[in-house]
């Protein structure tokens, strides 16, 4: 069932340690087959060097396991909400990558300070609203998804233009058209967080990029007028 | 004698350089056989790439060497105290991992700023009290163990819920149910110290997690209602 | 066509990931044949581990592709301007190396704080002037080249003595007599930015080196009285 | 001539890149044969992966090359002074390791903030006095040696108890009984500088260790009552 997608999701998961984004088992990638309404996700707490494509778990859009010997990632309900509410995304990544986590812990949006950010994220990467005590005690992982969606809606941020979030006091989730692109975005987020941390320690002047620089760099790589890379 | 435990302790020691937790020979792991009342520990000052399981030294709970050609770690009296006073722990690690040492040198408890911390440490990781001049001059390593125990008692911290300490002006000790878990906790402590350092440089607002987030994440991975990972 | 130069430029490009200067495809090296008035540059957006010498693109000094199956780097117009206006340089590098980017984002010139800097850069590495909205919206990459040239002219900096710049809110460009030397300068810039960042966090006193130390170290490695290294 | 020492010095040089202490060719190790009054040093500007034991240069205590096809390190006059004035040292290392350089650039002594420092350096590692313009313009490398010696004399620091210095606006020199021990001290200095940098950013309270902790840790590893490691 979904063998090709399982392989892609497996390979995207294996990119996380290669890109230096995970410690131990602290990360997961999923990918969705929109036609079938099913997504594939890493099993919970399995070490990367023991993982196989067959270990991937198939889940439906109610968050129910449809196939798989192992428990799916404990973050599965968060992925379920995001696939339901962000209808154009094809893959999701969660990590505890340290620079991104530092901003999530500090509760500070990752500002757009340069072209490295603007090439991928069309504006600030927001810190999510805080979950209430009630939201944490009940259906915590589902509520984490809901608070991400609510944060984007309330702040009027387009999740396709800003494909990531810093869950407050927790860490980053990123997404993309495919599992691979979601992993790419997870790495960009970490690199940008590192750069921005140091820039903000050098100066606390307002150094955010102007809108026209954001436009230039974002649309250089996205949309019909993109001109970076090769035409395929 | 204790061949299986020696092998486990050897392998746990070899994890330290792989996880980036030691420079030169600055680290040691021990593990205990509670039934026999004996623990196994790395020899003092031996390079990791020359270490073998047979080099491990067997020590009793009075801190006396029972078997072994080599001197045990100079920190053996600290391990002895901890095994005596923390009766449920099965393994102990000491390193000079740099982020944890920085908090130990600064004398600042490692605060719980996020879920990465809360998944493993149920509250602040304390900096130990200072040793007096007398305590340093006489039976220093034993007194280091005593000051750890005293710190936990005075501050009413459960060593099973917070399996680590920052010895003031020295560095981290961690422990766990097994030598492997103690190593795991040593790595988590280092990663969390790195994240927290950067969060604290971004803001000095109170950003500690609320108690209910600490509860949620700690008990997600510990105790009878834990639901992270696979049932074995 | 220019097979030998293509090989050199290819090899210089492959140094970037080895030296830890690039993430994904975010970097490019070019090299020029001054006699023929043609330069060779990396194709746009191609992954380093798939790159071959044959993929290199040949461009003339009007910025027109003369040979090559692939699109040249999107930064080609910047390279074109620099080759035209800096007539003695033989190679150019652009990266998003994180320490250098942090200074570019903060808008702070990289000061000469020590001999590591002075050995390669004869004075501050400047942050370029900002591009205007008009300059960003039209012929952005060409205008990036122009603003670099203008910055050096207005601040009376010799591009041979200070072979690099931090493009504001973007990142570093370096150059040199050959592609290899331009790569060397890119690495020095990154290392110096790391050292200087930490020095500036330790103290904000004026710690710039005196002119005579700058003279000593720069001319120890450059010009007819250089005495570092071997005579060939 | 001195084949065994050449091999030791070669191997000590090759430790520098393995320990992450050098970029490019920015480092050198020497070792002395006190009986013959000759020392062996790395040639200037040769890449580590091309170095062989035969490339090592033999120099006498006047700083004259006695044997060798290649130019000795440009820092040879500094080594010469140190061997003459510090009669008990057997090996010297110079690097531009980034954390140590940051303190040298900032002009801040590396304070003893913990046991990692005290195990190797019996007190602050000093920043050298500044060289005058005259001293930099004439016999610069010899004067660098002289200013190190003068700094230790004026501040009454024993170079055997504190086997290293931060040359102001330049970088670290370390030394030891053998070339290997000098390399060990170079690594300790770098690690301690990293730890201390972060501790000092966490707090600017006085966090230097008390004298009795310095005594305990230094003499735990040095002198006739040392008890760390194995008796050989």
UniProtKB/TrEMBL annotation, chains A, B, C, D:
<feature type="domain" description="Class II aldolase/adducin N-terminal">
    <location>
        <begin position="7"/>
        <end position="197"/>
    </location>
</feature>
<dbReference type="GO" id="GO:0019568">
    <property type="term" value="P:arabinose catabolic process"/>
</dbReference>
<comment type="pathway">
    <text>Carbohydrate degradation; L-arabinose degradation via L-ribulose; D-xylulose 5-phosphate from L-arabinose (bacterial route): step 3/3.</text>
</comment>
<dbReference type="GO" id="GO:0005829">
    <property type="term" value="C:cytosol"/>
</dbReference>
<dbReference type="GO" id="GO:0046872">
    <property type="term" value="F:metal ion binding"/>
</dbReference>
<protein>
    <recommendedName>
        <fullName>L-ribulose-5-phosphate 4-epimerase</fullName>
        <ecNumber>5.1.3.4</ecNumber>
    </recommendedName>
</protein>
<dbReference type="GO" id="GO:0016832">
    <property type="term" value="F:aldehyde-lyase activity"/>
</dbReference>
<dbReference type="Pfam" id="PF00596">
    <property type="entry name" value="Aldolase_II"/>
</dbReference>
<dbReference type="InterPro" id="IPR036409">
    <property type="entry name" value="Aldolase_II/adducin_N_sf"/>
</dbReference>
<dbReference type="GO" id="GO:0008742">
    <property type="term" value="F:L-ribulose-phosphate 4-epimerase activity"/>
</dbReference>
<dbReference type="InterPro" id="IPR001303">
    <property type="entry name" value="Aldolase_II/adducin_N"/>
</dbReference>
<keyword id="KW-0054">Arabinose catabolism</keyword>
<comment type="function">
    <text>Involved in the degradation of L-arabinose. Catalyzes the interconversion of L-ribulose 5-phosphate (LRu5P) and D-xylulose 5-phosphate (D-Xu5P) via a retroaldol/aldol mechanism (carbon-carbon bond cleavage analogous to a class II aldolase reaction).</text>
</comment>
<keyword id="KW-0413">Isomerase</keyword>
<dbReference type="InterPro" id="IPR050197">
    <property type="entry name" value="Aldolase_class_II_sugar_metab"/>
</dbReference>
<keyword id="KW-0119">Carbohydrate metabolism</keyword>
<comment type="similarity">
    <text>Belongs to the aldolase class II family. AraD/FucA subfamily.</text>
</comment>
<keyword id="KW-0862">Zinc</keyword>
<keyword id="KW-0479">Metal-binding</keyword>
